[in-house]
Amino acid sequence: MQINDLLRKDLMILDLQATEKEAAIDEMIGRLSEKNVISDKETYKEGIMQREAQTSTGLGDGVAMPHSKNKAVKEPAVLFAKSSKGVDYESLDGQPTHYLFMIAAPEGGNDLHLQVLASLSRKLVNPEVLEQLDQATTPEDVQTIFAESEEDTKEVTPSTDSDSANKKFVVAVTACPTGIAHTYMAEDALKRKADEMGVTIRVETNGSDGAKNQLTADEIRRADGVIIAADKKVELARFNGKHVLQRPVAEGINKAEELITKAMNQQAPVLRVDGDAVDNNASEEEGGSAWNTLYKDLMNGISHMLPFVVGGGIIMAISFMFERIPMDNNFLFDSFNTIGSSAFQFLIPILAGYIAYSIADRPGLLPGMTAGIMAVDSNAGFLGGLIGGFVAGYVMNLIKKSLRGVPKSFEGLKSILMYPVLGLLATGLLMFFIISPVFSTINTAMISFLENLGTGNAVLLGAVLGGMMAIDMGGPFNKAAYTFSIGIYTDTGDGSLMAAVMIGGMIPPLAIALATVLFKNKFTDVQKQSGLSNFVLGLSFITEGAIPFAAADPMRVIGSSVIGAAIGGGLSQLWNTAIPAPHGGIFVVGLGDNILLFLLALVIGTVISAIILGFWKPEVKNEVKV
């Protein structure tokens, strides 16, 4: 299989009309559907937009590579589109995009096409190929360019001759979540730049078809530095003791010279591995702030906690329905409530444990989970457990550093004896004497304050929580509001704030769906089709259904959603509604208090958001019919 087997002439669009990102995506998806490459436009677009939400595939230098490995794809294909006007594609360099390659890869099956797609990706970092594409006027011209460049990419491998002995030697790993395009573009960009700089490099790729060109132990040993250009987890322990530079995969493409320079000059933290623990002290080198590091650790705890919240919470909610059945021995209520309550007992220990795990790897899990249990037992609640998780992680890192000088004969005792005992003791003492007493007092005061809120204050709190749910639709504001309400619910059993956040999370997708019905001239055909699915997502309390719309038009979509969600959240508190379940949307509303008023608050917020969005959004012009 060659590149031109996938880069089909009948799919090419050499006069792309769209000038905005989503419109361009819709125009290309329409051609794929027309040529029977995909079976479902909506499903394929969902995959494309999910990838765009992670990082823009507008790579800079006028190139974009939207791609998805998707169940809607019937056969692998690449669509090439050329825009003379340029597309505002939110590219990493902020410049217009003129050359777009939409990659459609099927799920499962023979992965031979992935090798071809990797080869295509490598070609696009070659400036000569882009110059030739600028001159191309026919599909045959485009295929000729790639046929001629089929053998251009060369493998740069470390040599053993005398000339290379004096060269700097760098090893790298590239990886992106999808593993189709960015992985290989970063690989080739690093190789080309290293060749220009006179640096020998070996690059391992972690793509959809697994790890290729795997680095050997000898290569790692001899390397002056290591580059990890990746947006997903890669195996780091093998680089113990090396200077390791960790950056997003996009920087491997666009900042290859900077990365190679820092790696060969050892301007990166030294990776330390003690037993199962990896500690590279590289937060400042990962391109993120201290807040980003804290947020990553917090999200690790929350993501592991959520299955317990959803599973246990909904089963508990169902038990309340059985409680209303008059029976002498209500075994349905007893069994369901016991199951749900048992899962709920793990919420804070799991949260704290996996925050500590994110900070200190496996050694942090024991002290973190113990901190969570101690927070529960001392009534320090959700806040005490959250702080306990961070404390456990950082304490464990300090212990690991302090034990680096232990004689090698005792290395084996670190993981099985020293880390567990010292980590548990230090964290336990801090929890017992400081954290638990302090946060128990704070937790008691906060619960007392909430129980004594006047109507006006309760409405304001409900409005704030509802609005936060709609600000970033699954991001830190959304998670902060949700986890705060979960904490109150687990401590008190009061589901009033759960009603506010549930309304706030349901309104964005519902409002978008309603707007696509009421204001048809403001949305493309594809958006209108996608909007209908948001009725189901919204009713199910899945806020993320609104993300593709928010990504394409953030100010109008997020602005209107926040207004409606805040109004709905405030009304839920004004009318004393409550939902005794942390998830489920419309399917658990029947278990709450003041059900009709809850639904009325939801409808009012949804209608207000939909009307604001509809009037604010401009009409669609030059819509591409698909």
UniProtKB/TrEMBL annotation:
Residue ranges crossing the lipid bilayer per the database entry: 302-322, 343-360, 380-399, 419-439, 459-477, 497-519, 557-575, 595-616
Entries under InterPro entries matching the protein: Bacterial_PTS_Sugar_Transport, PTrfase/Anion_transptr, PTS_EIIA_type-2_dom, PTS_EIIB-like_sf, PTS_EIIB_2, PTS_EIIB_2/3, PTS_EIIC, PTS_EIIC_2
Location relative to the cell: Cell inner membrane
Keyword entries, A-Z: Cell membrane, Membrane, Phosphoprotein, Phosphotransferase system, Sugar transport, Transferase, Transmembrane, Transmembrane helix, Transport
Domain named PTS EIIC type-2: residues: 294-626
Membrane topology per record: Multi-pass membrane protein
PTS EIIA type-2 domain span: 5-149
Domain PTS EIIB type-2: 170-265
Protein name: Fructose-specific PTS transporter subunit EIIC
